[in-house]
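wait is this the right file?? whatever heres the structure
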């Protein structure tokens, strides 16, 4: 059996058709979703790539002790020892030189995202070149294989041909902007809405470019002889803020624009096709899922890592009663099916899943919920650091289901 993981850094979950967007053209993501199992509530545990990839590759939560990574067997290391061809393909130096990348048999580092002008054709874009390299690799790869691809273009360079942006120009709109570098800025209180809309048009064009490349890639993949016994996982390493809370790009935080990511899991023979789950899922669950797929031995489900296959087989409707996150400054957060709490000097509380992009802070009105969630977060961290998953007490109904 083979595994192919595609990770797109900077992919905003709210800009994809399978996740509810209706104004951006993503026909190939839609097609992939129709043949895949979709996870609706996937939150990364950290926007720090080093810690996030530790979760993806070893199942260790971002808030776990920072022991040397070599002490934890990585997924690539286990598979390589089992005789599986392991390859890492990336345009991100921080991934290519991650300590755990050494466990791959082969690391292929592509040129990092860079462009001075908008491309004329799809093939001349950074995504176009990345997917060509990926298809060239798959044309000659040995089986069984574990191929991990991380492409970071969405968070760094937007070089789609200009007509991709023009698709989203409405009558009366100014012409879309022609900048290439992904913007990183904070909006003024009196910002020009046309400026923000132009940025959103540019990002939408880049997502449509990615969709076009994904479509060509899926056509290619379906013709390969090993397609019918290859698992395809498409996920993100974090979103891209586009105006929520006044930010465009920049330093990642705990907003859903940054931490809520898509995950599409295409299984052989269209198993679980078009099914989707509302369960809370974290990055360590990808590690547990791929271990089960590769038959590396049983992984006991815990509050920290669990395979999503029971969800896909409709044997269960949930994996975790809470997800816990940490940002680059040490601020923590906890997400339950009903709530999302950010800690810090002034806690912020949001009703989930209704308040998708954290608009209405209800913390001042619900101090008992804030207190209960803070205690639940501390319980999680204590059990995580003590490595005693079985000791984590369940949440009470108000924290789990909300106010009746």
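ok assuming it is, sequence goes like this
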């Amino acid at each position: 059996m083979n595994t192919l993981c595609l990770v797109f850094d900077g992919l905003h979950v709210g800009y994809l058709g399978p996740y509810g967007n209706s104004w951006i053209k993503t026909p190939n993501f839609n097609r992939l979703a129709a043949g895949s199992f979709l996870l609706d509530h996937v939150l990364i545990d950290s926007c720090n790539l080093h810690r996030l990839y530790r979760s993806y590759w070893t199942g260790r939560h971002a808030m776990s002790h920072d022991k040397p990574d070599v002490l934890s067997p990585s997924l690539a290391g286990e598979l390589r020892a089992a005789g599986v061809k392991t390859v890492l393909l990336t345009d991100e130096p921080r991934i290519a030189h991650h300590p755990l990348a050494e466990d791959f048999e082969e690391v292929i580092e592509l040129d990092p995202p860079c462009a001075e002008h908008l491309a004329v054709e799809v093939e001349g874009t950074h995504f176009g070149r990345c997917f060509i390299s990926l298809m060239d690799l798959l044309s000659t790869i040995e089986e069984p294989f574990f191929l991990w691809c991380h492409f970071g273009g969405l968070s760094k360079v937007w070089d789609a041909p200009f007509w991709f942006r023009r698709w989203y120009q409405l009558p009366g709109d100014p012409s879309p902007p022609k900048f290439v570098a992904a913007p990183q800025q904070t909006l003024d209180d009196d910002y020009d809405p046309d400026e923000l809309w132009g940025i959103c048009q540019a990002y939408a064009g880049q997502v449509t470019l990615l969709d076009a490349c994904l479509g060509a890639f899926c056509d290619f993949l379906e013709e390969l002889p090993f397609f019918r016994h290859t698992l395809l996982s498409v996920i993100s390493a974090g979103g891209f803020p586009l105006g929520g809370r006044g930010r465009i790009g920049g330093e990642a935080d705990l907003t859903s624009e940054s931490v809520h990511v898509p995950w599409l899991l295409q299984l052989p023979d269209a198993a679980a096709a078009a099914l989707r789950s509302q369960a809370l899922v974290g990055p360590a669950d990808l590690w547990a899922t791929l271990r089960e797929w590769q038959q590396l031995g049983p992984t006991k489900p815990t509050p920290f890592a669990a395979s999503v296959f029971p969800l896909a087989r409709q044997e269960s409707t949930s994996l975790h009663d809470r997800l816990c996150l940490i940002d680059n400054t040490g601020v923590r957060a906890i997400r339950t099916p009903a709530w999302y709490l950010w800690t810090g000097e002034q806690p912020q509380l949001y009703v989930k899943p209704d308040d998708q992009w954290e608009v209405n802070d209800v913390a001042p009105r619900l101090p008992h919920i804030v207190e209960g969630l803070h205690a639940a977060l501390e319980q999680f961290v204590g059990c995580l650091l003590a490595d005693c998953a079985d000791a984590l007490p369940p949440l009470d109904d108000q924290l789990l289901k909300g106010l009746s």
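The chain has two domains: 2-312, 331-401. so i think its the right one actually
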